[in-house]
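ARCHIVE RECORD
Type: protein–small molecule complex
Small molecule: Z5A
Source of inputs: curated submission
Record status: active
Notes field left blank by submitter.
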Amino acid sequence: MSAGRFITFEGPEGSGKSTHIQELESFLAQQGIRSIRTREPGGTKLGERIRELLQHDAAGESPVARAEVMLFLASRAQLVENVIRPALAEGVWVLADRFDDSTFAYQGYGRGFPIQELRLADTFATGGLVPDLTFLLDVPLSVMRERLSERDTQDRFEREGMEFHRKIRDGFLQLAAESPDRMVVVDSSRAREVVRAEIEEVVRTRFLLQSGAAT
Ligand code: Z5A
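STRUCTURE (tokenized, with ligand):
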């Protein structure tokens, strides 16, 4: 049995990660490939509780910036050990809505923590797990703002100012430039069908054609 593939989706809010993970899940099912979806923070019972603490201040106070980092990493450690690694070992593909590039973009480029310190802490949390492929769904701030404005309520991150979100977007693009083999930048301001087709083509070319599985 071959090991599963670990594919992460990253990008600013409203960039279409949830939408395109579902599309890719359907595409893989058509190819006869088993996959699961995860999200961060969350994806486990413990992780979902941490999500409440992080996004909606469920403890009655906001975490300070260093506590915020540790909470994201605790959620990730639980997810990697209890969900991602077991799935990959069984040959199941894992499609993750955010992983460690979000920590480098938000807590590194956004909050200003040194990326190298975050990388060390992240490696401790994940045991060194690295995605096989990462889609960076990129959208200009104007598109992000438009998509988010349609929401009734906003979480703690969505309420941050535009300068914060500009740093995040630039940070993601910088991370992609540093890991061109793993990270594929997709212009997600285009029509959903066009974005979906591009993502499928990358997956087909990277993983399916060589194994003869793609139809
Ligand atoms: N965070 C962090 O700081 N550090 C970390 O280490 C981690 C996370 C792991 C998680 O929020 C927050 O935690 C996040 C970063 C921080 N900050 N925020 N906010 P979340 O999981 O609740 O939110 P999100 O990850 O940003 O997801 P989202 O806002 O739900 O967006 P999305 O999943 O990327 O987009 P979507 O829901 O698929 O699409 C948004 C809308 O656009 C929707 O109405 C779609 O129908 C529409 N859409 C999608 N694609 C298109 C196209 N191509 N055309 C037109 N409309 C489209």
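CURATOR ANNOTATION: The CA atoms of residues 21 and 95 lie 7 Å apart.
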